[in-house]
Design brief:
Blueprint (H helix, E strand, L loop, with lengths): L6 E4 L12 H13 L4 E4 L11 H15 L4 E5 L5 H13 L4 E5 L8 H13 L5 E5 L1 H4 L5 H7 L5 E6 L4 H10 L6 E4 L5 H6 L4 E4 L2 H16 L3 H17 L7 H9 L18 H8 L10
Parallel strand pairs: 1-2, 1-8, 2-3, 3-4, 4-5, 5-6, 6-7, 7-8
Helix pairs in contact: 1-2, 3-4, 4-6, 6-7, 9-10
Amino acid sequence: MLKNDRLITAMITPFLENGDVDIETSKKLAISLTKSGSDAILIGGTTGESPTLSDDEKLELFKNVKDAVGDNARVIAGTTDNNNKKSIELSKEAENLGVDGLLLTVPSYNKPTQQGLIDHFNKIADSVNIPCILYNVPGRTALNMEAETTHKLSFHENIIGIKEASSDLSQITKIINNSSNSDFKVWSGNDDETFSIMALGGFGVVSVASNIIGNQIKTMMGAVLEGNIESAANHHKELLPLFQALFWVTNPILIKRALNISGYSVGGLRLPMTDNQEFNLEFSELLSKYDIDITKT
């Protein structure tokens, strides 16, 4: 059940040399993530280069990753964009393949009103019978979903929480407070904000960095849950340089580079994403200071 999954990894999508999706490596990576602390795995998110994947490729990934991890982790499918009808169709297909939940992302480019967001997400959630997590990421979409909008959506029985990446702690605090008497969860959408959001009462994180250091993030989160804020803060400060470095250039460029440097070959990127090896030496030196806990299966 997604309501128990505090560490959700936004998994990268491995590619073969010819640019096709590398299904076998995707399955192996997903299994490795379950062994390094991930409670659930998000497939088809921004970190997975979803804008460059066809619906058929997404569905193949959803099925194969779920088959690979079985009951060891939940699989969340990123199925939405700025086309409501298409989002509903893909969400239904993903549910039929056995995924455990859906990620409903604020649409980019359209810039709907707040009421438009409510109608869009309610219709998608109405169409399925599995849990849905909202995703607010104004840095990507050019549109912020306001706290009141999130609160209204939280009453839908299938919408169980939100991945909040607005970096607006006042807004995030309002969401947490408004949901304090319900089972609605708030996951941090940014690794460098997980400590702060969980200290405010947030539930967990949808993480990029956990592609390589899941157990260490889990340790930090555990310290927060145990009330050992000083220990959690120390863990956070140790990991913060890596959290920040992964976003020196647009995600997922550097998390993919980090996996490849660490010996977990996941291939390159799909255009228009490219890795020109900017900050190559500096990034490699910083990465070497951390114990990468993803292991090849």
